[in-house]
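Task: complex structure prediction.
Instruction: return structure tokens for all chains below.
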Amino acid sequence: MAPKLPPQHSLQQSSTAVAGGQSHHEHHAQPKGIMRWLLTTNHKEIGSLYLIFSLVMFFIGGIFALVVRAELFQPGLQLVEPEFFNQMTTMHGLIMVFAAVMPAFTGLANWMIPLQIGAPDMALPRLNNFSFWLLPVAFILLLSTLLMPGGGPNFGWTFYAPLSTTYAPPSTTFFILALHIAGISSILGAINIIATILNMRAPGMRMMDMPLFVWTWLITAFLLIAVMPVLAGVITMMLMDINFGTSFFDAAGGGDPVLFQHLFWFFGHPEVYIMILPAFGIVSAIIPTFARKRLFGYASMVYATAAIALLSFLVWAHHMFVVGLPLTAELFFMYSTMLIAVPTGVKVFNWVTTLFRGSISFEPPMLFALAFVVLFTIGGFSGLMLAIAPADFQYHDTYFVVAHFHYVLVPGAIFAIMAGVYYWLPKWTGHYPHERLAQCHFWCSVVGVNLTFFPMHFAGLAGMPRRIPDYALQFADFNMLSSIGAFFFGVSQLIFVLVVVLCVKGGKKAPAKAWEGAEDLEWSVPSPAPLHTFETPPVFHRTHPSE
Amino acid sequence: MRSPWRWLLSVTFIASIPQAQASGWNMPVGVTDISRDIYGLHMTIFWVCVVIGVIVFGVMFYSLFRYRHSKGAKAAHFHEHTSVEVLWTAIPVVILIGMAVPATATLKNMYDTSQADLDIMITGQQWRWRYEYLGEDVAFTSNMSTPWEQIRGEEPRGEHYLLDVDEPLVLPINRKVRFLMTSDDVIHSWWVPELAVKQDTIPGFINENWVQINEPGIYRGQCAELCGVNHAFMPVVVHAVEEDEFEVWLAERKEAAEQEAMGIDREWELAELMERGEAVYRAICSSCHQPEGQGAPPAFPALANNEQLISDLDWHIDLVVNGVSGTAMPAFRSTLNPVEIAAVVTFTRNSWGNDTGDAVQPSTISGWIAQ
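Output:
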């Protein structure tokens, strides 16, 4: 415990409490083999299941992306037919959003929220097991649609009606069922996280003492509960249109295709913040640790996160600037969208100011967190450009948009997840990740991600639409660069798998407090964290009484 | 290949050479007042972002370099500063207001579709555009003319690969043209970057947009909203001409339309119908039902050796005239004229092994439509 570095939690988690907990649990017959994992109610084991599932899906979604990039390497149709190409773009988006990024954050939440607030487990452990095991069911079902007659979903991850209803392949009903199951999983997970955070904090820990990862996840969980039912509603309306003769979205029956987009994006815009707010929390833990300096503006970080979450309900139609909204609606959504730049800017300024006059070292988690700040901000800049409604008439549905959201999702959300994994691996496994290999993974990823996505800005501005399997000749060079970058990035991720596997098997031993500047409660339990922790709540002290 | 790294670097380098010479890195300035305004907004917000980026990343990289733990840096203890925090909340607000003012003015201008000199109905269909000069009795569909052999790489690709059509939209310069936009099937989006017009065409809705072109020329764009399997093959080409040239063109099209109308009442030979029908089939039907009529089941049924089609002429005509609700088959009663429908029905009944010998007459079709 470095006395100069507040917040100074008292790290009184006694090793006797841990040991006592273990002996207590030895009375239970622990199921062996697969049943252990099917029946587990332990937050750490479920967290690991989520993370492994997410990693597998990250590679499956990545292979779909590489099919897309391989076809786009040159003009013309070489490898796949347009029909299959559309299935690949759609499945890539769906898998990455719902099966890779979201479960990765839920996995980190499962592992770390109880450890960060000093709770023995999640509030609802059996529900926790159920919410995880819904996911493999949902995504095996979704992937199986690729093998069905007529192929899988081919209408983009935004599945706009009527392309996804009247004109959709027969497998769409299974796509809807899969998304329903995944949605239920998310809602149950969110309920569990809220219940845990509100009820199970260590004695003495107030809301404004919580680490930012806990705060951002609390807000994310409320977003999930608010919008996943909207998604469930809209896909149920699709189900009715397809199978029961309704006309919610069928203009020929008096329905309204634009209604679909309003409902979808009322879910979809908060959804994109669901995928970035926990990332803010992770970065807000890592930067102070490796700058050896307390996070600048803790309170304003909390308020900015809440402001972003509230604004996310008021900006959905900026995805719809060219559908023919009335002028007043365009203006409202342009102004509200521009406003999001303010709290987002506050966060970036806070991170940079935390670095200012710190004592900075560059361990692998820090490298990823710093790349996050730079590259996420670049994605934020293109987001600000997209908010300017008149200019969006040119940007909309082009590769400029593809570049934008990949910058906030790949070096944004995914780099933050990787930063978090490198940061907490010592706590999970008791070993430090191999530093050289992790650095190699970092530099390959940074080069790959920029080579893939930066040229897409130019392709989009020059006029290349999204979701096309073939393109005019003036876009050829940009696409070739993107494809080379994508394969480079994809192969680089094998290094990540190697680092994680090596770290589980062995490596330099990590102490309880694995990083010199780390402050939160998780560093008070041994590394690796035993199966049961904090069965006796730790006493939380603070030396800086008011924030 | 000695080293994959060297290979990667050389490919990257070679690929970047033609790019440096060609334009096409940035949004086109375009040829309308609005496209210039939008380009101006785009460049302004871009430079605002660059300046903010230089400052923020400047401070960040300075800190990373200056306050290294390895160089013995000792961390300071500050973690709050109210006036700084208020300042960096307020300054972005001021910048954003500065951006919102010109953006609002441009947007208002874009939405002013009043007092147009010419109205054109644009209808998106899988996968072509239909243009109707309202009040002028001129209407036609515009299909991609890039041959499939170029897409498959069986012959060299032309200069305007994927961006060529059989019939471009012809517009006069210096006149305000209003577009009324809708769709017959799924959502499409009509986009020409140099005109800065991108507008979704949505079934059941009529959207409005407008353009006043300052310079004659040929302007190319594409469908921007995923609309199914041939979304990439749905280009837009606008041919902007001097006003008097436009009047001449319009008069010619009107006369051709009258000629066509006279053809409805006369008796057509089988060979004549087959020739006309093949052209219509290639332009309209082959994207779904495939060049050899083999279809792409289950979405697009085969026409070749289709028993029901061969045995039931009335059913066949009804299908083409009225479409099949709930499927991708549109009603062609208003998008093709009776001659074209008669010709294409005749063609499909006498091709690829279908040998009914039927020569369906345009007069039969016009009677069918009148019912």
